[in-house]
Design goal:
Elements: E1 24-31, H1 35-46, E2 51-55, E3 68-70, H2 71-80, H3 83-89, E4 91-93, E5 95-100, E6 103-109, E7 121-123, H4 126-138, E8 143-147, E9 150-156, E10 161-166, E11 172-181, H5 188-192, E12 198-212, E13 221-225, E14 235-239, E15 244-250, H6 257-260, H7 263-274, E16 281-294, E17 299-300, E18 303-305, H8 307-310, E19 311-312, H9 320-339, H10 349-373, H11 378-391, H12 395-398, E20 439-441, E21 447-449, H13 450-454, E22 458-463, H14 468-483, E23 488-494, E24 505-507, H15 512-517, E25 524-527, E26 533-537, H16 542-552, H17 555-562
Parallel strand pairs: 1-2, 1-11, 2-8, 5-13, 11-18, 22-23, 23-24
Antiparallel strand pairs: 3-7, 4-7, 5-6, 9-10, 10-11, 12-15, 12-16, 13-14, 14-15, 16-19, 17-18, 20-21, 22-25, 25-26
Helix pairs in contact: 1-4, 1-9, 2-3, 9-10, 14-16
Length: 563
Amino acid sequence: MASTYTNPEYPYRRSPDQDATQPVHHQVIIVGGGPAGLAAAMDLALHGIDSVVLDDNNTVSVGSRAICIAKRTLEICDRYGCAQPMIDKGVIWKHGRVYFGEEQIYEFDLLPEQHHKIPAFINLQQYYFEEYMVDRCMEMPQIDLRWLHKVAEVASTANRAEIVVDTQDGPYRLSCDYLLVADGANSPIRDSLGLESKGQIFEDRFLIADIVMQADFPAERRFWFDAPFHPNQSTLLHKQADNVWRIDFQLGWDADPEEEKKIDNIRPRVEAMLGEDQQWELEWASVYTFRCRKMDSYIHQRVIFMGDAAHQVSPFGARGANGALQGVENLCWKLAAVLDGRAPASLLDTYDTERQHGARENILHSTRATDFMTPKNAVTRLFRDTALDLARDYPFARSLVNSGRLSTPCTYDDTPLSTPDRAEFSERMRPGSTCLDAPIAGPEGRQEWLLERLGNRFTLLLFGEVAADARQQLEAALASLDREGHHTRALWVLPQGQHAGRDNEVVDTEGVLAQRYDLRQGGVYLIRPDQHVCARWRTLDPDAVAQAVHRALGKTLAEEQAA
């Protein structure tokens, strides 16, 4: 088998905690050094929270695994400081083609808009994704990464979590205010606590074959229904870094996973697709079954579950790792606010409610994609094939075709943290939505991007000028929030043609920000630390701003619960 990547081996290091006579206490301990665990450590570090990351292995992912990294995930990683090497190494793409038999029935563009810093998608093997995250973690002094430290026991009370960690030097004990668990879909910690992840297993199997080859196929997503080289089954083709190509072959429920992974069985399938003259080598193969499931609650006293340990979806649609990082950014700003004493502990309950909504949305899309790709009877197959036939000529039918709805950010429509609109706005950036990026210019014409300026704090976007007395009232309201520890910054957005003279002023150089946010003179947006909209107004009301910040920190919710 070919090999384009050598897994790094991170050294085991003995921690001073292992020599302590009593369990050492930490604010946050994270179990699992995969995408969710590493992202949580970086997110907390940017909020000034120290963490210990425990991983029972000493390397990154073995095999390419999750390869499609969505725009929102890259925007999150850009905030962490590790997106650029991912983009530099990955294969950037936004176009896709859908085939039915031998014929292309339509194509699509995932980001037809201009003026975005981050591409729609990149394809990058998970081991690179994790390696760049590890590199960034090692630059952050708030993160204590411990390889070959395996969590063997977990106990949780209302006030703390306690664990036993096994190492080559023997076991030791730790305690923490919060234990974040990202130990995978088959989470041993979840099982040890008697908790379940409930859902559905779909009766079908798919083969992943990662092959190394030189080919001039464009960097785009290609999906075949009833492929001529793989009759009555579906096939997917993606390009990755290092001239590695991902091919997914639908196999059927009766396929033997161990047999299908053998090169003698993979070769005829690949040759039927690419032709016998195409030179290639197999790098990695896996057979998987679709699973869609989640926990009823991600919070068990002081233990909080993240990533695949909390929720699992089938691979089509790239919703696993991408959904995991959206969950991490939802959790970590809230956890930091609670640990800093700026928010009640009940704020963490909204991680569960908001990300349960996200998981249900991902599972719904994943389930529909699975049902469409693998019809279970003559009626559902007739519906599918009719939709595919119509999609050749009719755009409306293309919305019915589901080869895996690709990951998009979740909108928290029913969250108690948002302040409802009191004025007419476009639906696009309603409260609960993820912020869209836009080009801006800072002082001296410095070219910037909106999401870079938003960062990970509460930010008030104000468009154009407001009356002097309203500005003074706002400054007083923000000063009051600062005294409470709720650091909320104001970012004044000036229309095209003007110039930013102060650090808290930017210019909407292309008019894109005003268009995407439906902003007019005097308009205001309040943005959460995870870059979701939590309130918006047509005119500035400083008292309403302060109330919206309190609401977004769960204080109104806590008061209602207390009452």
